[in-house]
Amino acid sequence: MRNTDEAGWAEMLDVLSEDELRQYGQMALDQVRIEARWAWVQALLILGGLACLGYGVFEALRRGAVDWSTIYALAGAAGLLYWPWR
Fold first, then answer.
1. pLDDT given for residue 4 in this prediction
2. Among 5, 15, 17, 40, which is 20 to 30 Å from 57 by CA?
């Protein structure tokens, strides 16, 4: 069974005109530029997520139990670490 990501690519490229292919290429380049422009925000989110994760793990180990501040820190870490890849 062929992978669905690979199925139909050759047929699609044969159907599209050169102008349409150029337009899709331009849209892809625009998307890369937009993502590169906001790379510093993604880096800050990752660093914030790692800081929350470190705090949550440290508090859980220090106290020997999980309380609400630890749960909030771990939930914040999950959100901050997920956001750059959404």
1. 56
2. 40
